[in-house]
Amino acid sequence: MSIVTNMSSGNETENNLFGIQKELELFSAKYRLVHAYISVVLSVLGIMGNGLNIFILTRKNMISTTNILLTALSVSDVLKLLVHLPNIVLNYYIFANQPNPLGNLRYLMFYVIVVIAFHSASIWLTVSLALFRYIAIKLPLKAATYCSQYRAKLTIFIVSLAVAGLSIPISLSYSYSCSYVNNQTDWYLVMANGTDKFNFVQSFNLWTMILLIRLLPCVLLLVLSILLIIELQRFAKSRSKLRGQRSFENDGNLQRQTETNRTTGMLVVVVVLFIVIEMPHGILLLLVAINKNVMDQIYESLGDLIDDITLMNNGINFVIYCTMSKKFRDTFMEMFSCSNGKSKYLHRNT
């Protein structure tokens, strides 16, 4: 179920805005048949992957400013997935063909608020990661001050506080309603509209999601990723010069720069992946705000696919870290490689 679908104005479609409504409706009907299965698989894999991220990134040899932020990102993603999984099971399996009880609607309300909050936190933590990394490689002499572990933890606290505040208006946007089907009560969520106050809250929520949760972070990430790529290119030129002037000191500088380059490259991949997934979503939401028919004709048909693509992004970071970070990969292998039937890590800690 798409979160923003619940925020639809409910207007009836009057015309086929882009001439593809029937095709999208057909796609939506077919994709819905597999959506629940895909969501469950992606959620379980994402929970496992982020759980491993948290476990590895919190080892003593892995503690750093960057890894503190990456740990917070994994915590946010895993909590979102832990809330998402029961929602899929409840709405696509348990109550799929029977009236909704009030308890399930209360969980759905909790789900909408919490998922938006954790998703917002993940996006802004990614922005923070890119910003911290750029400062660290652009101003290396001041990195210890500007990019300290304390400031990373303070950033996590500020992001958490901000998204919690932005989530409050969402809880004011909905109310419970019910109908009676075969002598059973069927509960559902409805937009609490009809007054200027609730219309304002609805507009505030939509524009908050468009500007603060989608477009603005994507623009910042795009700028920061370009700056990071420029720094990577500058490093490549510097590495060529150091290789041409071999010495013990230069070899040490080259090794340090190579490690910095690997971490920066890994973060660029994480950032670009966020942009690729979030930017089209933000543009689509902007079209919804401009023309409500976009919600009925396009967004609702693509809602399930958008959810699954987002879930995939929530769980793919473990693969990126293993592929691009030698230190992460070595720590993972050391912790879980077996020697005489026992993990080296477990053996060391018994």
TrEMBL record:
Question: What GO molecular function annotations does the UniProt record carry, in alphabetical order?
Answer: G protein-coupled peptide receptor activity
Entry keyword Ribonucleoprotein: no
Question: Per the database record, which ranges form the G-protein coupled receptors family 1 profile domain?
Answer: 49-321
For this protein, the record's InterPro entries field holds: 7TM_GPCR_serpentine_rcpt_Srw (IPR019427), GPCR_Dmsr-1 (IPR053219), GPCR_Rhodpsn (IPR000276), GPCR_Rhodpsn_7TM (IPR017452)
Any one Pfam family match given in the protein's UniProt record, by short name: 7TM_GPCR_Srw
Q: Where in the cell is it found?
A: Membrane
Annotated membrane-spanning segments are 34-56, 68-95, 107-134, 154-176, 206-230, 266-290
**What are the alphabetically sorted keywords of the record?**
Membrane, Transmembrane, Transmembrane helix
Task: Output a single Gene Ontology CC term carried by this record.
Answer: plasma membrane
PROSITE patterns hit by this protein: G_PROTEIN_RECEP_F1_2
Recorded protein name is Sex peptide receptor-like
